[in-house]
Write a structure and sequence with these properties.
four-stranded antiparallel β-sheet; globular; single chain
Length: about 120
């Protein structure tokens, strides 16, 4: 079955960096666009960043533009989220997700598979 396993979360001070990874199995990874979403306590899940199948197109939520970078390695079946200049408001559980569409997708319902999530906590 399809599995998406996130790693790399943790506790970091404001201004610091983290790199999240999401390892995929059970699917032909290069046939799927990938995305990162996050959900803070008491809030709805929101789109953070997305990347198309080949890695040539990316899209970011406005609040993370210039600070976060999504990338993928199709040979390793892995998608990454490099997070720099972290802020306390970035604190959330971060999820990776896979979708079978051609273009970058930003809506949660457009994604077919989800990981379990990894906690990111940014202290002030």
């Amino acid at each position: 079955q399809v599995q998406l396993v996130e790693s790399g979360g943790g506790l970091v001070q404001a201004g610091g960096s983290l790199r999240l990874s999401c390892a995929a199995s059970g699917l032909t990874f290069s046939n799927y666009g990938m995305g990162w979403f996050r959900q803070a306590s008491g809030k709805e899940r929101e789109f953070v960043a997305g990347i198309n199948r080949g890695g040539s197109r990316t899209y970011y939520f406005d609040s993370v533009k210039g600070r976060f970078t999504i990338s993928r390695d199709n040979a390793k079946n892995t998608v990454y989220l490099q997070m720099n200049s972290l802020k306390p408001e970035d604190t959330a559980v971060y999820y990776c997700a896979a979708n079978s569409r051609w273009s970058v997708r930003t809506l949660a319902y457009e994604y077919d598979y989800w990981g379990q999530g990894t906690q990111v906590t940014v202290s002030a």
